Amino acid sequence: MATLTGTVPHPIYLAGRWVESPDLMVIDNPARPGEPAGATYLATPEQYEQAVQAAVRAFEVTRTLPAYERGRILREVSAGIKARREELGATIAAEAGKPIRDALIEVDRAVLTFRLGAEEAERMTGEVIPLDLMASSKDRVGLTRRFPIGPIAGISPFNFPLNLAAHKVAPAIASGNPIVLKPPSKDPLVMLKVAEIIDAAGVPEGMVSILPMSRELGDRMVSDERFKLLTFTGSPSVGWRMKERAGKKKVVLELGGNAGVIVDRSADIEWAAKRCVIGAFAYSGQVCISVQRMFVHEAVWDEFMDRFLAAARALRLGDPADPTIDVGPMVDAAAAGRTQLWVDEARALGGKVVLGGTADGTFFPPTVLTDVPVHAQVCSNEAFAPLVVAFPFSTLDEAVHRVNDSTFGLQTGVFTNDLAGAWAAFHDLEVGGVILNDIPTYRIDHMPYGGVKDSGLGREGLLWAIEDMTEIRILVLAWPQ
Length: 481
Description:
Helices cover 38% and strands 20% of the residues. The chain contains 15 helices and 22 strands. The strands form six sheets. Strands 14-15-16-13-12-18-19 form a seven-stranded mixed β-sheet, with helices on both faces. A six-stranded mixed β-sheet has the order 9-8-7-10-11-21, sandwiched between helices. The longest helix is centred in the first third of the chain and has 22 residues, at 100-121.
């Protein structure tokens, strides 16, 4: 842990108030171990309790907050993030180690996410349902409407410390629900700065609290019956245990995967190689839908691998604050060390390290492996690292089967110009999303996003998140006969 000298800790946001605590938390800079990116505080149990009580009280206000007011708040937050783009991007680069170009894109996505939240707040429509389907139901009609569910507990991850948190806060505000957010301990500062923007937009008191907290307090939040929904993004081992402890509340889990990509013989090979390099190595592979397994048709194997390796070798590794850098550090030395162990295991099992493969402190170079047995960690688990394993295949059916041979199922990219093959892949792949002629790493913030199997439960994306944050209620109208 870095030591703090000359840095003023950022206060935490408790139900409309800025507070401090006795528990100082120094935030490391992954690119410069020992040099702090900043500091803040961990909430105390008493502060947690104040935030939850405030959220319960706030629900009596937020549940009737009109659409125009929810839309106004979200548009002002979106505009405020846009106005502070450079500052927020620099914060992400410093505390998360994300290359500044990618950090600025994340800020831009958060601008969109809050704007989309405003739009969804203003079109939370219901429907009219005819009920006269039998004689005894004559002269009856149903009207449906969505109502906010109540206080929400949100837990967001380190890899997108702004935008994945936005995917919890924006739909909560849009649907009229209070939220207590636990930001990631590794990089909480960017969301505390966004809390300044949320506060300036005039959210009702208690509607939003952003509280860094200990694992123990986070566990308390998971089981707290006053929350009506838990929305968590993080590791499968943690997420499924949370679901067991969550009680009667709804649970939405986005738990990552080991995403596959299929490059068929009919694909545009130059495009596929270019995109797969981005998908495999952007933010050092620390993305839930990072390309981890590549299945390449044997007829185009040599051409694809030559192009892919050439592009991977050209990537620049270095200081994330440098706008010319493509790959920065991993989030900490422990992550780089685990990656090294997995690469060493793959090599010991007969795999070949074609590129990279050796850690340097918190930095791990783009790494490509072949001939790795499928039971190796780099194939069977989520690497969350700048490494990819390549396999040849002979038929598209075989490739689909091998992608499905996983406990995960988040997204898959399929590069093909064979229409029948594309439809077959869409039908047969056991994933939450199939991305045709692009990488599984593709996401835009209004699409439904989530997975099956160990990759999670439910969907994010503004419209779909709001569905989980609301309860549908029907009004049945009967005409006296």
